[in-house]
């Protein structure tokens, strides 16, 4: 397990860059995104350090460890990597000002909630594919939920006529909604692939048919919610607050399916 110094350094690097972004986007007046180009590349340092910490924490020895702390840290890391890549195509610097401080907190999660047991069947290729699909889907829906919360605040402030600087420097609401549904479509495809791999290969992965426990039920419920949201968008033009509510409901079900079950088992029940 890496030292507390390594985790602390990672969190401090994120915090410094987050403070630079927040300071720039909270000031009044327009912001030139080109002035933050160096921050985009500086983010590669804590991102690389966190990737190493996750690898050392998850693959310590011959076994694989994926506790709730590693899972949260990994999901936020993947979400930030996606934001970093998308920032070359969209104006997302203002959103990064909100995400990077979250990454600073997530960097400490493996220390706060260390794994207690190795992951069974981690050596199997099918399992690793299933796990990668699940983490990618969770990360995308985490981004979608953050988008929805920011959009809700932005919409309310637009109606009141008072926008703080950080909101004035965000992309337009329609552009954020377009990006939101692109994220949800991609996340839905990955979630579908994750559920399908778990169902079809449950016998090989876990040595028994797929069990319809609360984890499976909430995962399927989340898939149904996001599927209904995309259908509503396509056929009836759902958008705005309706889309926001459905997105948050689907994300909540997804959290209860995986993170919630791991938290109860590992932290509360110590199993």
Describe this structure in words.
76% of the residues lie in helices and 0% in strands. By secondary structure, it is an all-alpha fold. The chain folds into two domains: 1-119; 120-271, no CATH class. It starts with a helix and ends with a helix.
Number of domains: 2
Instruction: Compute the CA-based radius of gyration.
Output: 19 Å
Stretches where pLDDT falls below 50 for ≥5 residues?
Answer: none
Please provide the count of β strands: 0
Task: Report the total helices.
Answer: 13
Helix content: over 70%
Structural class: mainly alpha
Mean pLDDT: 80
Query: What percentage of the residues does DSSP assign to strands (E)?
Result: under 5%
Please provide the ordered H/E string of secondary-structure elements.
Answer: HHHHHHHHHHHHH
Spatial gap, N to C terminus? 20 Å
| Major sheet description | none
Shape: flat
Keywords:
single chain, 271 residues, mainly alpha, 2 domains, 76% helix
Please give a quick description of this structure:
With 271 residues, the chain is mostly helical.
Give the arrangement of secondary structure elements:
Elements: H1 4-26, H2 37-42, H3 44-58, H4 68-86, H5 93-106, H6 109-112, H7 125-160, H8 165-168, H9 173-200, H10 202-206, H11 214-236, H12 240-257, H13 259-268
